[in-house]
Specification:
This protein is of the alpha+beta class and 549 residues long. It is built from 15 helices and 26 strands. Strands 1, 2, 10, 11, 12, 13 and 26 form a seven-stranded mixed beta sheet that branches. β11 and β12 form a beta hairpin. α1 runs parallel beside α8 and α5 crosses α15. The longest helix has 18 residues. The radius of gyration is 22 Å and the shape is globular. The termini are far apart. The mean pLDDT is 95.
């Protein structure tokens, strides 16, 4: 039986960061177990390849959520990366941190060292900001020497320019850097791209570290249970070769670290006998350590999308068919430019649902393309544009629960989208703002008519019906191994990310987030892993940033 100092389950964003940082210490040995294959698939590295990786079972767990009232009884796809780089290898490669209040809220809930001034140095450590128009504020908020290149989208499109101008006509200012001092405003997106290719966490962190002799990375290694010696985690059992492979075990002399994400980390805990006693009893799993919060507190962003037909301009839809697509493929092969270099969203808007709100609780995204039935894998056959809107910090709570004791059976995922009345109220405001943006004077040259939900959908009830019909996830599942002080019965890990009541076991991924950041999650997961690496190595945290109000 092999023994390493650290065993990491999952080679996604967090696992890749930890593999790199922990193996920097040449005296420590690190083993990473990844259930999926290597990140060889070409569509991983082509930015527009997300359309295929979102539905590709070779690199994607292809989970689906349970039906609910506010999805109209539909199951919503919940893609999760299953390859080196995890979801950073299949996502929209957007870089979005969130707002100060998000992380200050974590600290105010009793999680010491997780306020914005504490985590900002770790955001900076992960990024290499590529900004030709940098100013003095960048030295405070942005990093220049990190592992991941953060670029502003270079693509310029007349429809996008008109949309941005229209937002300004509605009083929404243009923002040079939504990851800087202020998030609010409208701008082109920032993304993790270099030379027209995706830079996943595997490319930025894991691949460089794999040259070290003290790091072992095993693919197609599906973790089946955590090995406990009393109340101490001492290893991981896994199947080499997947479900029909052969069982193996690897031991951890120092720590076992779960980096499977908001679905796989709680499931592995539960099938290992760590979780709610009632659930484990129903599944016939012997309780090794009762912990009520494992799998609870799930949150996700839920977004209805408005689709409009476009006139007087060419959209990505037309460029993606026939001879024009051949031209785009050649353009990308020669110059790494064109539509294959794009991500699913091109423009961001961060704004308020109500002028009386003190913070910005809406996120909207715009792109000069549209998708069949709102699913981002099949483009429409007509010239189209799409605007999506969602509540940045949803109140609705769901759960992830093992369906059986079999670790190869997909768990049940129930986000309970829009169950909270507050979510529906903010979502309605976002949908109404989305429609106003589509009808702005600047965009009128290109706006033909509303395709979905259509001009007949005017009342609040009509709009909520549209949200039921076609609303989808924005792929931001979090919170199922929530970080909280001991006084919170829903907590799973402490502010050092140690599983409550157990030794030598931590969780480091989006599942530990106490509340939803006002953002896509990948940037925050990278930050969490950077910070966790210092904790695990026993190093002093980076010095907190001094910020003026």
């Amino acid at each position: 039986m092999e023994t390493f100092d650290y065993v990491i389950v999952g080679a996604g964003s967090a696992g890749s960061v930890l593999a790199n940082r922990l193996s920097e210490d040449g005296r420590s040995t690190v083993c990473v177990l990844e259930a999926g294959p290597s990140d060889w698939h070409p569509f991983i590295h082509i930015p527009a390849g997300f359309m295929y990786t979102l539905v590709n079972p070779s690199v994607n767990w292809l989970y689906t959520s349970e039906p609910s009232e506010w999805t109209g009884g539909r199951r919503i796809a919940a893609p999760r990366g299953k390859t080196l780089g995890g979801s950073s290898s299949i996502n929209g490669h957007i870089y979005n941190r969130g707002q100060r209040l998000d992380f200050d809220g974590w600290a105010q809930r009793g999680n010491r060292g997780w306020g914005y001034s504490d985590v900002l140095p770790y955001f900076r450590r992960s990024e290499r900001r590529m900004a030709p128009d940098a100013d003095s504020s960048d030295d405070i908020f942005r990093g220049k020497e990190g592992n991941l290149p953060i670029n502003d989208l270079e693509w310029r499109d007349p429809i996008c320019e008109a949309f941005i101008e229209g937002a300004q006509q509605l009083g929404i200012p243009r923002n040079r850097d939504y990851n800087g001092a202020q998030q609010a405003g409208v701008s082109y997106v920032q993304r993790i791209i270099q030379n027209g290719r995706r830079v996943s966490a595997a490319r930025g962190y894991l691949r460089p570290a794999m040259k070290r002799g003290n790091l072992t990375v095993r693919t197609n290694a599906h973790a089946t249970s955590i090995v406990l010696d009393g109340k101490r985690a001492v290893g991981i059992r896994y199947n080499s070769g997947g479900q029909h492979g052969y069982g193996r075990e690897v031991r951890a002399a120092k720590e076992v670290i779960l980096c499977g994400g908001a679905v796989n980390s709680p499931q592995l805990l539960q099938v290992s006998g760590i979780g709610p006693g009632k659930l484990l009893g129903e599944l016939g799993i012997p309780v090794q350590h009762e912990l009520a919060g494992v799998g609870e507190n799930l949150r996700d962003h839920y977004a209805p999308r408005f689709v409009a037909r476009v006139k007087n301009a060419e959209t990505i839809n037309e460029l993606s068919h026939g001879v024009k697509l051949v031209g785009e493929v050649l353009k990308y092969a020669i110059s790494r430019k064109g539509i294959l270099s794009l991500n699913p969203t091109l423009v961001y808007v961060f704004w308020k649902s109500d002028e009386r709100v003190d913070n910005y609780d809406l996120q909207l995204t715009f792109t000069p393309a549209s998708y069949k039935e709102g699913v981002q894998s099949k483009l429409d056959d007509f010239p189209g544009m799409t605007i999506a809107s969602w509540q940045q910090r949803p109140d609705s709570l769901g759960w992830v629960r093992a369906k059986s004791a079999d670790p190869f059976t997909a768990p049940l995922i129930q986000p309970n989208y829009l169950a909270a009345e507050s979510d529906r109220r903010v979502l309605l405001a976002g949908m109404k703002l989305a429609r106003r943006l589509l009808h702005s004077p600047a965009l009128s040259k290109y706006y033909d008519r509303e395709e979905f939900p259509g001009a007949q959908a005017q009342s609040d009830e009509d709009l909520l019906t549209a949200a039921k019909q076609r609303g989808t996830t924005t792929f931001h599942l979090m919170g199922t191994c929530r970080m909280a002080p001991d006084t919170d019965p829903t907590g799973v890990v402490d502010d050092q990310l140690r599983v409550r009541g157990l030794e030598a076991l931590r969780v480091v991924d989006a599942s530990i987030m106490p509340t939803m950041p006002s953002a896509n999650l990948n940037a925050s997961v990278l930050m969490i892993a950077e910070k966790a690496a210092d904790m695990i190595r026993g190093r002093a945290p980076l010095e907190a940033t001094v910020l003026r109000d």
